[in-house]
Amino acid sequence: MVFPAEKKLLSGWGRYYRQWSYVFRPEGWNALQSVIKDERVPDLIARGLGRSYGDTALNEGGAVVDICRLNRFINWDEEKGILTCEAGVTLKEILDIFLPRGWLPYVCPGTKFITLGGAIANDIHGKNHHCEGTFGKYVVALELITPTGEILTCSRYENSEIFKATIGGIGLTGLIRTATIQLKKVPSAYLHIDIYQCKNFDDLLQTAQEFDKKYPYTVAWVDCLAQKENMGRGIVMGGTFANPNDLPSRLKKHPYLQKHKQEIKVPIDAPSWALTPRTVGIFNSWYYDWNKSRYELQPIEKFFFPLDRILEWNRIYGKRGFIQYQIVFPKDEIKGFKVLLESLSSSQVASFLAVLKRTGPYREGYLSFPLEGYSLALDIPNYPGTAKLVEDLDFITRRYGGRVYLAKDSLMKPDMFKESYPEWKYFAELKEKLDPDHRFSSSMARRLEIVPQRRRSPIC
Amino acid sequence: MLNPSNIIPSTKSVVIFGSVSSVGRAIAHEFAKQNYSIILCDINQDENERIAKDIQIRYKVFCDTTFFDAEDFDRHHEFISEITKKVCGYPEGIVICFGYMPPQEEAQKNFALVKKTVNINYLGVVSVLEKFLEKFEERNHGFIIAISSVAGDRGRKSNYIYGSSKGALTRYLEGLQHRFARSNIRVLIVKPGFMDTSMTYGMNLPKRLIASPEEAGRIIFKSWQKNKQVVYVKWFWRYIMLIIQHLPRFIFLRTQL
Ligand SMILES: Cc1cc2nc3c(=O)[nH]c(=O)nc-3n(C[C@H](O)[C@H](O)[C@H](O)COP(=O)(O)OP(=O)(O)OC[C@H]3O[C@@H](n4cnc5c(N)ncnc54)[C@H](O)[C@@H]3O)c2cc1C
Ligand SMILES: NC(=O)c1ccc[n+]([C@@H]2O[C@H](COP(=O)([O-])OP(=O)(O)OC[C@H]3O[C@@H](n4cnc5c(N)ncnc54)[C@H](OP(=O)(O)O)[C@@H]3O)[C@@H](O)[C@H]2O)c1
Q1: Mind listing the pLDDT tens digit for each residue in B136-148?
Q2: Chain B residues closer than 8 Å to A27 by CB
Q3: Helix or strand or coil: residue A12?
Q4: Residue of A6, A91, A222, A410 with fewest CB within 10 Å of its CB?
Q5: Chain B contact for A7, CB < 8 A?
Q6: What backbone phi and psi angles, to 5 degrees, belong to B16?
C-alpha cells in the first residue's frame, strides 16, 4: 500500500535553512515500515519534534518521516523503573505521566518538547552530564527498522555495533520504532539550587569546578557581551533533589506536584531591528544583576526547562532565523575557551546568555558529542556576517581540539567534522554495510559528506 | 454474574468503535482521564492492542480490545456479547468513530466502493447501535456519541458519495434523538469539518480550518459533558455550513465546493 505524503517547507529550530521535502506521517507500524520501501522517494530521514537547530532532521528534495504520531507507551515496569515506548513519545509526556509516580528520565535537555527518537539519535546530555553521562547510557534496548526494512532488536548484547551507531547516529542507521529506557527515582519534583554570581571568567571557571564536585546538576550562564574586566561574567547554578521533608508544608504531602504556569506564545516573527547588541546587552545585564548569589528551591520545570514557558521563542530572532553554536573543548584546552570568548566579546554578537557546562567523559555512540571538558552554547542571529563569524569560531574550536555539536550545527565543513569526530570512520563503515544504497540520508549527512551526494534527482 | 442485563454497570464504562482512528484514540483518553473502563473495538487489532496498553499505562484504568469489522453485519451480535462479558453488563455509553472515505472520482466509477462506503458509514453504525439501544431503553440510561460529518449537510460534487452516507447517518441519529427525547438516553451528533488525521493527510487542507485529533477529542468530550445535541468541530464550521446550506441553488451550482 502507498501512503500519502505532504510537500512541506521544513526547517530546524534555528530556522536558518528552509527546505522542501515530502513528509510522511505514519500512524501505525505497517505504515512506518512501508515508508522505507516507497519507490517514489530517493531517500529519507526520521524527524521528531524538530528541536535540532540545524539540518539533521532535514532532507531537501527527499522524504522526511514525521514520527510524532507513534507515541504509545508499550510497557512499564514500575518496580525497576524500566519504560518501553514508541520513538515519538515526547519527554513532556513521560514527565506528565511518570513524574507524579516519582520517576524521571536520567537525562533531560533544556526543553521537554523533544521525542525519545530525537534524544537517542543525538545522544543528548543534560545538566548532570558530569555525573550521569548521556541519554544513551540509559537506553536498555531499541527496535530499529533498518534501511532494508528488517526489524532488529539492538542492545549492548545484541547487534551491539548497530546499537552503538544508532545512538547519536543522527537518524542515519534507520528508523527507531521503540526504545526501552531506564528511569530514575527522584524524591520530589523540586531541587535545592545554589546560585552564584561570578564577576569574571576566572571566577566563573573556578566556581563551576567547585560546583561540579558538590552538585549532581550544574549549569552556568555567561554574558558574552560583557567586555574588559567583566568579560566572561556569569551565573553558576548547582542543584540537588530535595527530600519531601525539606519542602514547604503544603508540598510535603504532594512532593511531585508542580504548579502549572501558563505558557506564553511569541505571536509573530520579531522585526530584524529588535535584536541588537544594545537591547540584548541590556537584557543580559538585567539577568546578571537579578541573579544575586542565594539558595532557592526550584521546581523541575523552572530549573530544567526555563525556556519552555515561551512557546515558539525561536521567532524572536525574526524571519531570517539564527544559528545555535555549541562546542566542547577538552579539559586541558581551557585556553581555547578564553580565546573564543574574547573573539565573541569583541565581535559583539547580539547573543543572549550563553550556556556553559562542564562535561564529563561519557558518550555512548560513535558520533556522540561530549568530551571531558567544557561546553559552550550560544545563539547567533542570522545577519550577513554570520557565516564568516562561525567560520572563525570553527577555526578556534578546531585549533584547540574542540568539536561542534551536530544537533546544533548548520555550517561545519566536512573536513572539520572528520577531524574532530575521528570515530566517524567506524560509523561510516557500519553505515555502508547496513545501508549500501544510501536509503537513509539527510541534508546534514550530505553536507558533512557522511553520505555521498544523490545520484537520483530530488523530487521537489 | 455475566450479563446482568437490567442493572446499570457499577463502574462507568464506554465502548469505542473505530478506536484506532486518531480521534477515537483521543476520545478514549478523555474518558480514561475520568476513570472510565474502556473497550476499544477496531478492525486493526494490532494497533488497537497497542493503543489499549498505552491507555492502561497512562491512566491506570481497565482497557480491553475486541476485533470489529463494521461491514460484517452478521457477526455483530457475537461481539456484543463479548463486550458485555468484558464490562460485566451493558456499557454506559457508546462512541462511534469508524468511517471510510473513498476517493470521489474512483467511487463514481466503481460501485463496490459506494457499497463499502454505505456499509461502513451508515449500515455498520445502525447495525451496532440498534443492538445496544434496546437495552439502553429498557434500563432508561446511556449515551451515544457518533461522528458524522459536515459533508452530510449538503451534497457537493467533490465528495457526495461519502457525503450522502454521512447525510443518512445524520438523519438516523436525529431520529434517535427524537426517539429518546423523553428518556434518559442522550445522543450527541458530532460534525467535524477538517481534522488532521490519516483520512485527510496529504490533502494540503487550509491550516486554519483544521483541528488536531486531541483538540477534537477535547471538544467532543466537553460537549458530551455539557449535554449538547450537536457539535461542530471546530465551532466555526457551524457558520460555514449555515452559509453553504443556505446558498440559493443557482449560486451554489456555480461554486467549486
Ligand atoms: C531549547 C532547547 C534546549 C536544548 N537543550 C539541549 C541540551 O541541554 N542538551 C542536548 O543534548 N540537546 C539540547 N537540545 C537539542 C535537542 O535536545 C536535540 O536536538 C534533540 O535531538 C531534539 O529532539 P527532536 O525530537 O526534536 O528531534 P529532531 O530534531 O526532529 O531530530 C533529531 C535527530 O534525531 C533523528 N531522529 C528522530 N526520531 C528518530 C527515530 N524515530 N529514529 C531514528 N532517528 C530519529 C533525526 O533524524 C535527527 O537526526 C535543545 C534544544 C532546544 C530547542
Ligand atoms: N478527518 C476529517 O477531516 C473528518 C471530517 C469529518 C468526519 N470525519 C469522520 O471522523 C471519523 C474518524 O475518522 P478519522 O478522520 O480519524 O479517519 P481514519 O483514521 O481513517 O479513521 C477511520 C477508522 O475507521 C476504521 N475502519 C475502516 N473500515 C472499518 C471497518 N470495516 N470496520 C471497522 N473499522 C473500520 C479505520 O481502520 P483502518 O485504519 O484499519 O482502515 C480507521 O481506524 C470518521 O467517521 C470520519 O468519517 C473525519
Answers
A1: 999 999 999 999 9
A2: 22, 197-198
A3: coil
A4: A6
A5: yes
A6: -115, 120
H-only helix segments in chain B: 22-33, 45-59, 76-86, 104-109, 111-118, 125-139, 160-179, 213-225, 237-246, 249-252
Per the rule left: phi > 0, alpha: psi between -120 and 50, beta: everything else, B139 is: alpha
How many CB atoms lie under 10 A from the CB of residue B244? 16
The reported pTM is 0.96
Q: Is B154 helix (H, G, I), strand (E, B) or coil?
A: coil
Calculate mean pLDDT across residues B39-66. 96
Smallest CA–CA distance, residue A22 to chain B, in Å, is 10
Segments making up each domain of chain A, as ranges: 190-411
Q: Give, in words, the CATH class of B13-252.
A: alpha beta
pLDDT at A244: 95
**Cβ contact (<8 Å) for B50 and A72?**
yes
Asked whether the beta carbons of residue A72 and residue B22 sit closer than 8 angstroms, the reply is no
| Distance, CA of A371 to CA of A349 (rounded, Å) | 26
Amino acid at residue number A6: E
Which atom from ligand 2 is nearest to the alpha carbon of B210? 3
Could you tell me if the CB of A67 is within 6 A of ligand 1?
yes
Residues of chain A with pLDDT under 50: none
Q: What is the dihedral of CA A254, A258, A260, A266, to 10 degrees?
A: -170
Please give the average per-residue pLDDT across B73-90, as a whole number.
Answer: 88
Residue B10 pLDDT > 70? no
DSSP 8-class letter at A458 = P
Q: Rounded distance, CA A319 to CA A321, Å? A: 5
Q: ipTM of the predicted structure? A: 0.94
A93, closest residue in chain B (CA to CA)? B58
Strand order across the beta sheet in which B63-67 lies:
B63-67, B37-42, B13-17, B93-96, B142-147, B185-192, B230-233
Residue A101, SS3 per DSSP = helix
Helix axes B160-179, B125-139, angle to 10 degrees: 10
Q: Kindly indicate the confidence band of residue B9, based on its pLDDT and cuts at 50, 70 and 90.
A: very low
| Domain A190-411 classification at class level | alpha beta
Q: What is the pLDDT of residue B6?
A: 41
d(CA B210, CA A110): 31
Distance CA A176, CA A365 (A): 15
- CB atoms under 10 Å from CB of A327, counted, come to 28
Task: Return the bridge partners of A86, or none.
Answer: A178
Q: What pairing do the DSSP bridges indicate for beta strands A139-145 and A175-185? A: antiparallel
Q: What is the pLDDT of residue B8?
A: 42
DSSP 3-state assignment of B144?
Answer: strand
pLDDT tens-digit map of B172-186: 999 999 999 999 999
Q: How many CB atoms lie within 10 A of CB B93?
A: 23
What is the C-alpha separation between A401 and A95, in angstroms, rounded? Answer: 37
Cβ-contact A7, A22 below 8 angstroms: yes
* Residues on chain B touching A31 (C-beta within 8 angstroms): 198
Peptide bond into B234 cis (omega under 30): yes
CA distances to A72, A173, A216, B71 from A136, rounded to whole Å, are: 20, 15, 18, 47
Atom of ligand 2 nearest to the CA of B166: 47
Q: What is the arrangement of strands in the sheet containing A403-404, beginning at the earlier edge strand? A: A294-299, A190-198, A234-241, A217-222, A354-359, A373-381, A322-330, A403-404
Measured between CA atoms, how close is A356 to chain B, in angstroms?
A: 36
